[in-house]
Amino acid sequence: MSQLLPLDFLNWASRLFLAQGVIILFLLLNIVSFSMPHAGDFKPFFLLMAVYYWAIYRPTVMPIPYTFVLGLVFDLLAELPVGLSALILVGLQTIVQKSRLFLMGQPYVMVWLGFAVMSFAYTISFWLLMSLSEFSFAPFKAFVQMMIAGLLSIMIFPLASLILQGVHRLLPVTSNPMRMVG
Amino acid sequence: MKRRSRSKVQVRFSPFQFLGQGQASLIFILAAVLLLTVSFVRPGVYGGVRSTVSDALTPALILLSEPFRQVASFTSSVTGLSEMRAENAQLRAENARLREWYQTALMLDAENQSLHSLLNVKPDPAHRFITARVIADSGNAFVKSAIVAAGSEDLVQKGQAVLSGDGLVGRIIESGRNSSRILLLTDVNSRIPVLLEGSRQKAILSGMNEELPLLKYLPADIEVKEGTRIITSGNGGMFMPGLPIGTVVMKDGQPYVKPYADISRITHVRIVDFPEDPNLIEGGELR
Question: Which CATH number applies to B128-273?
């Protein structure tokens, strides 16, 4: 077995953490203030983009428990009922992972369309769960604003998937340090 | 050679398709449903965890919000260049007008002091302002809240009023070590006790998740005039009394309030550090 040099290890670790860093960046982008009027009302679904992309192309980067925790963190930061985003993201990730074989071989337009469907499902389930938490229908205006945010997400998705694709190419072949050498 | 047509993917819709291999998914979906039920039944139970999480991520959020802030100030400085002369003239006129009001205010303050001492009225405790920057919004259209980069280390406490620009924008609902959360007055859960200037009629300002919050719990026979100034009443010891909020606008026969502050465009806030009335009884969840 060849030697595991410290530099190799650093290289492997930094590439692995780059992928995770980009995921955390997407989570923070969902929350950070854009310093624009009404920015919070029309925020694109960055976290959903990351969840969708990795669920199709490399589920081990973003396993289900990890998505669950990230969803919880987002709920805590966004003053939402805790568990709401976690539930929707884990549910959507499960659906996408089941359709992996179908989506992986498709041209990019189909993947984009798949994201549009997921975005729509995200909005609808978000609104339904928020209505449930208030025990009355959540404001329709907010629903419309979220639909617009969904449209923005669909438009931004190619850019986001470009970034994620770049990170994907940089990823090491395996995330198991024992299998790195040889 | 002719290309083979793409073989059709067989999608089997068996009822148990989503079970079996997706055991992890099922467990976490159930866990999420459980947590969600808890937060439906007892909404305030995650307050401490929220503060901890926002404290932990505040440095990253401050770092991440910097580029957006720079871009916003750059665009405003570029567009402002052309309007600078007009703005300058307007500011000079406003300054002259405010100087007159300053003299009047000093005179009224002196008169107020002498009347207070005559009637032996206990003066309101002194207040001070804590300035803070907004680093995060709620990220969705259903909740109107914001996170600021000031916490208990800067003497920010739960229940303090938050001003921005010309008027009230909300109040602090959670205060961590170096970050705090504001509930804006346009949020559906926001209820602020207010006073109509002039008639001294009390009411509650409740957010509707719209641009304009609604004045509720006014007696049916009260006539509310458009343009009436709304200020905080300080009822329940919740806020410092007399903070400006906005003016009344009538919409569909209902009295809404147009806030003085531009709530969609908050970048810096002033938090009013007003000591609580020591005569108030401990307890209750409003505070």
Answer: 2.40.10.340
3-state SS assignment for residue A175: coil
Interface with A, mutate which of B12, B34, B36 (most A CBs under 10 A): B36
Q: What's the whole-model pTM score?
A: 0.83
Q: Are A152 and A42 in contact (CB under 8 A)?
A: yes
Q: What size, in residues, is chain B?
A: 287
Distance, in Å, from the CA atom of A175 to the CA atom of A180, rounded to the nearest integer, reads 8
Chain A nearest-CA distance from B227, in A, is 25
Residue A1 is assigned to a structural domain of this protein: no
- CA-angle at A58, arms to A57 and A59, nearest 5°: 120
Point out the residue among A35, A80, A90 whose CB comes nearest to the CB of B25.
Answer: A90
- Residue A48 is part of a domain; what is its CATH number? 1.10.1760
Residue B54 is nearest to which of A30, A72, A77, comparing CB atoms? A77
Rank B16-25, B179-188, B274-283 by mean pLDDT and report only the highest. B179-188
Locate the domains of chain B by residue range.
56-123, 128-273
A40-73 per-position pLDDT tens digit: 889 999 999 999 999 999 888 888 999 999 999 9
Which tokens sit at B180?
């705090």
User: Does pLDDT of B117 surpass 90?
Assistant: no
Q: State the smallest CA–CA distance between residue A95 and chain B in angstroms.
A: 8
Task: Note down the domain range covering A140.
Answer: 6-172
* ipTM reported for the complex, 2 dp: 0.85
Taking an 8 Å cut-off on Cβ atoms, the answer to whether B40 and A133 are in contact is: yes
Whether B78 shows a pLDDT value over 50: the answer reads: yes
Total domain count, chain A? 1
